[in-house]
């Protein structure tokens, strides 16, 4: 789904809420979101959601830097830099170079590789929610979701690293950095990776950082540096064929190491550490569920909405929120299809939370009923990262 184009009334309301947000953070357009126009575009909404995710950490940074630098300009620079940097990791084959590569190395050294992958996955979800958000509260909700992944310590680490590596010299930012929360803790943590010299001197020799489809993160430095020319920090990789001999194609790899694969028209979610060799040679129950889901979806019609859903859809349409109406329609359709499957397979264990269908005793994989959109595949893979299940889609 592409970015949502806001109605004039929604644009005005969002603009007003953003200006109120800026009141205690330098006033005016505190994040520089209006430089490309008088309203908040798709990228602007993602940036605002990111600032909301930083929350109190951004405010304490503003207060700490107030005496040393122009805090308003610095905060805007930090938020935009983080947003642009994280955007690089949404590419299919992420590669960062120059200052972005330096930032990657600094953050991996500070936070660890697993935390970094989690942040990138959380950022992808934030961007997806911000693109369809139409209100300030929805952006706040998107930011809150990322804040849970981010955490206070990681937020401070990112701000420290971006501030130090934003093109200023250490002489310019040194006093400001020392005034930030957790600066001494950062020094201790970085000492285990070679100390401040590693971060601020040797790290300047970093040439590129690349993430492969196999889940490896490769950091390449110049030959003059007394480090290995490339160090690999790899996650689990899996074979390309299942135990049944049929080839399985990877269609999505989550930053947490879990992934989605397709085989003979089937879509499976494999948790981290689970190989395609763990896929069953055949899955009769899954085939029955898949056929029933397609059949139920084909017989669905608007008459199955119910009065409450119909009224809600009409309210959204009257407000010009077509995408909301479409979302309500898809949700109603999904609930109806799942209910039809529950009636058709009453002997199965259906769950109200977690995976929809628990597989029979002794079977290590389960089943999830979902619509066949890419965003839905992605969301379910993130929500149940540790569950081995087949995706039954319609």
UniProtKB/TrEMBL annotation:
<keyword id="KW-0472">Membrane</keyword>
<protein>
    <submittedName>
        <fullName>Uncharacterized protein</fullName>
    </submittedName>
</protein>
<feature type="transmembrane region" description="Helical">
    <location>
        <begin position="98"/>
        <end position="119"/>
    </location>
</feature>
<feature type="region of interest" description="Disordered">
    <location>
        <begin position="238"/>
        <end position="265"/>
    </location>
</feature>
<feature type="compositionally biased region" description="Low complexity">
    <location>
        <begin position="238"/>
        <end position="248"/>
    </location>
</feature>
<feature type="transmembrane region" description="Helical">
    <location>
        <begin position="73"/>
        <end position="92"/>
    </location>
</feature>
<keyword id="KW-0812">Transmembrane</keyword>
<keyword id="KW-1133">Transmembrane helix</keyword>
